[in-house]
Specification:
Layout (H helix, E strand, L loop, with lengths): L4 H13 L2 E2 L7 E2 L2 H13 L4 H36 L4 H66 L1
Antiparallel strand pairs: 1-2
Length: 156
């Protein structure tokens, strides 16, 4: 039927503008309910994919952070277990502790980096979503204003 949100809003406006006006109705009119609901469904279906993407990002952010934490804990446990096995000789024990510390620092660094990247991605997607929603709101306001202007002209 229609290809974009603007075209669908235009169709919605055309339908309202061409609707039968109620006598003594103060600007009220009759529209076909099914047609209006179909247009609304199409508008919803054509809303930007970023809405769904933002929801998915918010869900996966927690999963990414939890996975990074589990991985860090696993690395730390592995390092601690390895260190315990090497306790028999002092030199090896010192090296094992150093390695465990390095692995823990690496795991912490990786966890922080994953969290930072996930936060940046979420911020970017939410910013783009805000821009899209702002543009959609502005278009809707312009359409309403045009509709009011046309309605006022017809009422005069």
């Amino acid at each position: 039927m229609a290809s974009g949100i603007e075209e669908l809003v235009g169709m919605l406006q055309d339908t309202v503008e061409s609707a039968w006006k109620l006598p003594f109705g103060s600007g009220k009119c009759l529209v076909e309910r099914g047609q209006m609901l179909d247009l609304i469904d199409e508008i919803r279906a054509n809303l930007p994919k970023d809405l769904e993407d933002a929801r998915k990002v918010l869900e996966t952010k927690t999963e990414i952070i939890a996975q990074a934490k589990r991985e860090a804990e696993s690395i730390q446990r592995a390092a601690e277990n390895r260190a315990r096995q090497l306790v028999s000789e002092e030199e090896i024990t010192i090296l094992a502790r150093q390695k465990a510390s390095e692995m823990t620092m690496m795991a912490d660094t990786k966890s922080k980096e994953l969290r930072r990247v996930a936060n940046e991605y979420v911020e970017d997607v939410l910013h783009r979503l805000e821009d899209v929603m702002t543009e959609a709101l502005e278009n809707t306001r312009k359409s309403r204003q045009q509709f009011k202007s046309l309605s006022n002209k017809q009422d005069q």
